[in-house]
Amino acid sequence: xxxxxxxxxxxxxxxxxxxxxxxxxxxxxxxxxxxxxxxxxxxxxxxxxxxxxxxxxxxxxxxxxxxxxxxxxxxxxxxxxxxxxxxxxxxxxxxxxxxxxxxxxxxxxxxxxxxxxxxxxxxxxxxxxxxxxxxxxxxxxxxxxxxxxxxxxxxxxxxxxxxxxxxxxxxxxxxxxxxxxxxxxxxxxxxxxxxxxxxxxxxxxxxxxxxxxxxxxxxxxxxxxxxxxxxxxxxxxxxxxxxxxxxxxxxxxxxxxxxxxxxxxxxxxxxxxxxxxxxxxxxxxxxxxxxxxxxxxxxxxxxxxxxxxxxxxxxxxxxxxxxxxxxxxxxxxxxxxxxxxxxxxxxxxxxxxxxxxxxxxxxxxxxxxxxxxxxxxxxxxxxxxxxxxxxxxxxxxxxxxxxxxxxxxxxxxxxxxxxxxxxxxxxxxxxxxxxxxxxxxxxxxxxxxxxxxxxxxxxxxxxxxxxxxxxxxxxxxxxxxxxxxxxxxxxxxxxxxxxxxxxxxxxxxxxxxxxxxxxxxxxxxxxxxxxxxxxxxxxxxxxxxxxxxxxxxxxxxxxxxxxxxxxxxxxxxxxxxxxxxxxxxxxxxxxxxxxxxxxxxxxxxxxxxxxxxxxxxxxxxxxxxxxxxxxxxxxxxxxxxxxxxxxxxxxxxxxxxxxxxxxxxxxxxxxxxxxxxxxxxxxxxxxxxxxxxxxxx
Length: 697
Description:
By secondary structure, the chain is mostly beta strands. It has one domain (about 10-675): TonB-dependent receptor, beta-barrel domain (Maltoporin, Chain A), CATH 2.40.170.20. It contains 6 helices and 40 strands. It has a 22-stranded antiparallel beta barrel. A hairpin with a 3-residue loop joins strand 3 and strand 4 (about 40-45). The radius of gyration is 26 Å and the shape is globular.
């Protein structure tokens, strides 16, 4: 890849280089000189101390204040907020590229707490920009494999739960950069689940408890992923880029229960075997082209045009007592996006940022047996925005402006239009080198995902059917937040979020003895406080903590419900220099109770982890071993849900002891060949269609 071409509105006064400010006294690094603060971001110089024992940029990120990397889910959060975009030299890249990137190529990591309008108008709260050294022309090759082993025999007959080999090639040239990669994943994960369902006046169903040694919920996935990218420096500070990605996923989910049925009308009891199967065969292709340039008269420009295509063949089958049902459907997505972002810098203190984003998004659901169109959800979105930035002495920044979003929605049997104003104001103040303060108000739009509007039905049992709701509406989400950072070690924050039409689960009685699980819009309010602290106890020994308290309320249809959660991530790392071994102990309490209009459900999990990491052959070979011990102190060992309505009561219990004695082995080999040089790029992203799951592996 290449160096950064930064939007002037975001980093107009940034120096070309922080320079080497590291001061070494008998190998003791003066850390204060390794961080550069401005009114928008913190920028960290990658030193040997920061990188010691780390194999990838993800592991370096986890050492920065307020940043948490979940190595099981491969997710990154900043101050416990997952609305994070990671770029390399201003470009969003595949996770395979980030994993393959040698740490020796990285100069600095910038965490942007006040991104420009191009990001914030789409709900991105934080941008992490990995900046390369720009001193290499040549080839990098990455070969890696990630394996999960159920050493405690808690995953049924599947001892190997996860196998993910991948390869990534990177060429860095004088005028051209090229990257291409391929990855394959096979996952076989099994959970023990039991449930109870009570249909008022009709029947009740209870299943036998299942344990980790005999799981009854089986999940299998086979995935292929390929990516390619080309960057061409057509002139100094002018970059033309192409990106393409292909994903092929084959997913099969099968649940088998030994159920006990009690029918109230004839007062009978029956034991039977219940099986439900959901399968998906999805092909996803995305491609984009962008241009970004900086002109000497104060102007900079960013433009992008992209297309995303998804075809997903679904099959659901249910077999129970005297009931057998099969449904075959196809979900499709066609998404076109164009964007133009302009920045003009009046002087070192004032800048104007304005732009336009147009999106056409079309969701459809077909019956695969007769090709009948079952549902349609088409959006035409037009967003124009203008923002003014004023900074004083690089310590005080005012970012103020508004976006205007016009939405035309054409669903299967209705047409709807909305017009929303999306104002934003950010004030950041750095009264001293050791104190940074920020206050922010933002408004943005949130849209339903494909699975939430798809009319493809799936039997949960002989009475309950699950389907999407094509009548869902977009939601206007407003956020007010305050944050403070002290001495690059202590972070405090508070945030209030209000969503007018958030999407939540909804259960209702249908015709006869049928019940429906679907989605509905409801008002959502959240308040959370966050504290993060990093403590270097002694040379080579660090302790990172981040804790969050959250309160959430959901209201609608004459109902209201709320829940509160305390989340915590704590890890201690020790670098044993004589043998160059990194030892890490981590505790994460991340299971959350999510309120629903008619009950609640839990999401995520709690874990203890022990990690060992060592490099060989001049750091070209890295071996990491993570172990989840069967320690249940502070760990909730079941993920539960509960629904209560006048006509329906549901509860479910998922046993999480299946993670006991889990081993995770990552082996990575990096080759490179080239010479030194110098040179400069941008970003793009598509809407994610990932269905919200249990928050587990």
